[in-house]
Each structure stands twice: as structure tokens, then as C-alpha cells.
Design goal:
This is Divergent polysaccharide deacetylase family protein. InterPro entries: Divergent_DAC, Glyco_hydro/deAcase_b/a-brl. Keywords: Membrane, Transmembrane, Transmembrane helix. The protein is α/β, with parallel strands linked by helices and 392 residues long. It contains ten helices and 14 strands. Strands 6, 7, 8, 9, 10, 11, 12, 13 and 14 form a nine-stranded parallel β-sheet that branches. It is globular and about 50 Å long.
Length: 392
């Protein structure tokens, strides 16, 4: 009788035949599962290796900064239509600090190619109309004078009154002499619509103040420069008068002194000048300086012998002629008749420019006539939109 060494002490265990073990189903499943996991692990390792070797251009991930905010974007077509920019899309973006950035981009028109528009060249935002574009100014002993911007932008474009761009009769009315009479200037600004162009006398008073009021109401502005008349010096327009016998340097000094009186104007218009305008040698340096500073020159058309057109064409200076003086007879009804003549002229040639002064009768007649003419489909525009400009 053998001894079972594995049996507990004092106990005897009966010998049993051990049955043959068979593979368990669960064990088989476990083996298969392990093999599957091993295969997946191997596949993942291969995939990771491929990703590490892939070019960085294969996958692009944009992750915004944690504190970034998405600017609010708004589109405003109504603003374009009212500012003569209906050929563009307007996109206004509100930035984090509350400022609004306005972007103009071309918009496709039916039946036409893309409309290319430089937003800067359609005048200022009305809210900024009293403030000059700093890129268009330089300091001088006479104050801040206009210059062309780094991108070629000119005061002629920056401060121009926008117009619709529609076909039809266009008329510009220029009222001069502003700044000479406080009450007359105030009445003109209060009663004349923004479509009328104002010319401030170089020898006027409080010009900076009047400039801001006029620009706030949407007026395009010129500086009215006194020039030597036929009967000078018996008829002396003032201390800044350009005189043909004086040196170009002296006349340019006077011009710059006048230019430094205000900002935000599109050009220069003569006051008198029957003799000076006919002297090509005297006039050429003046027109050249005006052109180089990004301004237009308006000849009031009173001198039949004026050389400004010929000189302006030769040096590519933006230039226009007045077609008629509307208040040669200082009577309201007579002025209204002249304005009707101006409209008939525009019907024949498409455009016309009328010149007047800030007399009470002129202001009253022009205010009435503009309202009536607009009802007849006449568009009154700033004079800058009617100049001959080969630089465009």
C-alpha cells in the first residue's frame, strides 16, 4: 500500500482516474480575441508610422487662439446706393475694440464684366468729412498743404462729392465768395443742398470753421484764388492776388498761403484774372503746382482769352471751364432763368457748370431751382465729377 505524500496528514484519499482534458470553447475565443488585438495593434503602429512620414502639407489644422473672437461681418448695399457706389459690395467688420472696418469689393453686374472700384476714390465717409486724410497733407511755413498720397490718391478724388454714375444730364453749380460775409456764408450753408459746390475766398475769415460746417452737410469745396484783372491795380482783389509781372516764386508763395487756410478741398477756382489767365508764362507754374498736389483747376469762363485750357492739356492737369455766370443780374427771377438756360445747355452737351456768388438772391434762387430740377431728372453734382482728367 503506497503512501500519498500530497494527502493531508491523517487523511487517506481514494485514487481516481483523471479524465482527459479537452480544450475549452472560452479558451479558444480568448485566443482568437488576443490574436485580433495583436493584429489591430500592429496595424495602428503601421498607420502611425505612415502619418509621421507624411508631408506636412497633407493635413492642415486651423486652431484659433483661446481668447480670439470672431469679428461681426455685415453687408450694406443701401449705403452704397446712397453714396454713388452701387457697383460694389460693402462689408463692414466690427473689430474687438468696437471699431468698424469698411471694405468695398467689386460686384458683378448683369451683362457686364467685373466692376473695378477703388473705394478711396469715391469721397470720404460722411462721418469723417470734416477731418483731412493725413496721407494727403504736408507741413509747410503756410500751414498744411495738399499732396498726392503714397498710392497716388488725390484730394481731387478723396474730397469729391460722390454721384450716382447714372446716364443723364449733370449740372455743377459753384457758389463763391464764402467766408467774406459771416451772415452770407451762414445762409448759404444753411439753405443750399449738399449737391452745390462751395468756393471759399482765400482772403475770407473763419474759413476752418466754415469748412467743417460745409463738409458736414456734404458740400464739395474749392479755394477761390484772386488773380490779376485787366484794370489792376485800380481793381485790386487783395494781398494774395497773383500778378503776372511778379516772379513765379512769389506767386507760388501766395498760392500756398491761400492753400494753407483750410483742408478738405478738391481744387482751385479763379476770382477775376482777366489779365493773369491770358499770360501762359505766369499761369503755367501755377497750374503745374496745382496738378502736382492732386487738385483740379476750374476756370470760371469769364475770360475769352484764357490760356488755362491749353496749358492744362499740355501738362495733363485736371481742368474744367464754367459755362455761364448765373447771377450777372442780381434778381431772383433773372437767376432762375439763367439756371433754366444752364439746364438746356446740359441737355445739349450732357453736362454744364454754372458759377455764382453767395448773394441772398442767388442762394434763394439756387435752392429753389435745385429742388425743381431734381424732380425733372437733372442730377446736380460736385464739380470734380465734370473735370477733364487724363490721369484717371
Amino acid at each position: 500500500m503506497g503512501t500519498d505524500l500530497r494527502a493531508p496528514l491523517g487523511q487517506k484519499r481514494k485514487k481516481q482516474d483523471r479524465p482527459q482534458r479537452r480544450p475549452s470553447v472560452f479558451a479558444a475565443i480568448g485566443v482568437l480575441a488576443g490574436a485580433g488585438l495583436l493584429g489591430l495593434s500592429f496595424y495602428a503602429m503601421r498607420s502611425t508610422d505612415k502619418l509621421e512620414k507624411a508631408s506636412p502639407q497633407d493635413v492642415t489644422v486651423a486652431v484659433p487662439p483661446a481668447d480670439s473672437k470672431t469679428p461681426t461681418v455685415q453687408r450694406d448695399q443701401k449705403a452704397l446706393q446712397t453714396n454713388g457706389q452701387s457697383g460694389s459690395d460693402v462689408q463692414r467688420t466690427v473689430m474687438d475694440d468696437g471699431t468698424v472696418v469698411t471694405k468695398y469689393s467689386p460686384r458683378q453686374r448683369e451683362g457686364e464684366g467685373p466692376v473695378i472700384i477703388n473705394a478711396q476714390r469715391f469721397g470720404q465717409d460722411p462721418k469723417m468729412a470734416t477731418s483731412p486724410n493725413e496721407d494727403l497733407l504736408e507741413d509747410s511755413p503756410f500751414g498744411r498743404l495738399p499732396v498726392k498720397g503714397p498710392d497716388g490718391l488725390r484730394a481731387l478724388e478723396q474730397y469729391a462729392r460722390p454721384w450716382s454714375g447714372a446716364r443723364g444730364n449733370r449740372i455743377a453749380i459753384v457758389i463763391g465768395g464764402l467766408g467774406l460775409s459771416q451772415t452770407g456764408t451762414q445762409k448759404a450753408i444753411q439753405n443750399l443742398p449738399g449737391e452745390v459746390t462751395f468756393a471759399f475766398a482765400a482772403t475770407g475769415n473763419s474759413l476752418q470753421r466754415w469748412m467743417q460746417e460745409a463738409r458736414r452737410d456734404g458740400h464739395e469745396l474749392l479755394i477761390q484764388m484772386p488773380m490779376e484783372p485787366i484794370d489792376y491795380p485800380d481793381n485790386d482783389p487783395g494781398p494774395l492776388t497773383l500778378v503776372s509781372k511778379d516772379s513765379p516764386k512769389e506767386n507760388l508763395r501766395r498760392l500756398h498761403e491761400a492753400m494753407g487756410k483750410i483742408t478738405n478741398y478738391t481744387g482751385i477756382v479763379n476770382y477775376l484774372g482777366g489779365r493773369y489767365l491770358t499770360d501762359a508764362d505766369a499761369m503755367e507754374p501755377i497750374l503745374r503746382d496745382i496738378e502736382e498736389r492732386g487738385l483740379l483747376f476750374l476756370d470760371d469762363g469769364t475770360s475769352a482769352q484764357s490760356k488755362t485750357g491749353t496749358i492744362a492739356q499740355a501738362i495733363n492737369a485736371p481742368h474744367a471751364f464754367g459755362d455761364m455766370t448765373i447771377d450777372g443780374q442780381l434778381d431772383r427771377q433773372a437767376i432762375l432763368r439763367k439756371l433754366d438756360d444752364l439746364e438746356r445747355l446740359a441737355q445739349r452737351k450732357g453736362t454744364a457748370i454754372g458759377i455764382g456768388s453767395a448773394f441772398d438772391e442767388t442762394v434763394d434762387a439756387v435752392a429753389q431751382w435745385v429742388r425743381e430740377a431734381q424732380g425733372r431728372g437733372v442730377e446736380v453734382v460736385g464739380v470734380a465729377s465734370l473735370v477733364t482728367d487724363r490721369n484717371e
